[in-house]
Amino acid sequence: ANGVTIKKNTILDNRPAGPTAFQGGVVVSKGDPNGTAPENNVIKGNRIQRNQPDLFWDKSGAGNVFKNNKCGTSKPKGLCR
Q1: What is the mean pLDDT of residues 62-75?
Q2: Any idea of the CA torsion for 25, 29, 61, 63, to the nearest 10 degrees?
Q3: What is the dihedral of CA 76, 23, 15, 77, to 10 degrees?
Q4: Distances, alpha carbon 54 to alpha carbons 2, 33, 34, 38, in Å
Q5: I need a surface site. Which of 19, 24, 50, 59 has the fewest CB within 10 A?
Q6: 14 or 68, which is more confident?
Q7: Cα 55 to Cα 76: distance, rounded to the nearest angstrom
Q8: DSSP, res 78
Q9: What is the per-residue pLDDT for 29?
Q10: Could you give the CA distance from residue 8 to residue 17 in angstroms, rounded to a whole number?
Q11: Please, are residues 28 and 65 in contact by the beta-carbon 8 Å criterion?
């Protein structure tokens, strides 16, 4: 996605029931190697907990902002406060 804002949500207990390429409470990813890189997305002020992981970002794209999210786990580390 590009230009999406996810703000002030509660996202709890999202766990896959079976195999999946990506998983998490919030996933920011281009998907497959030929996918479009996510750009200018804002994930801010959310409570994201008990997911596997809470926040996932594949480090692709530009201008993606992760700020003031209350969460316990992220890939890469450092996206939670």
Answers
A1: 97
A2: -20
A3: 0
A4: 20, 23, 25, 18
A5: 19
A6: 68
A7: 8
A8: T
A9: 96
A10: 26
A11: no
Report whether pLDDT(16) > 90: no
Per the listing, tokens 């996202």 go with 11
Residue with tokens 């497959």: 32
Residues in the chain: 81
- The answer to whether 41 and 4 have CB atoms below 8 angstroms apart is yes
- Tokens 């209350």 -> residue: 70
The Cα 39–Cα 28 span in angstroms is 9
Q: Give percent of the chain above pLDDT 70.
A: 100
CA 71, CA 81: separation in Å to the nearest integer?
7
| pLDDT at site 33 | 86
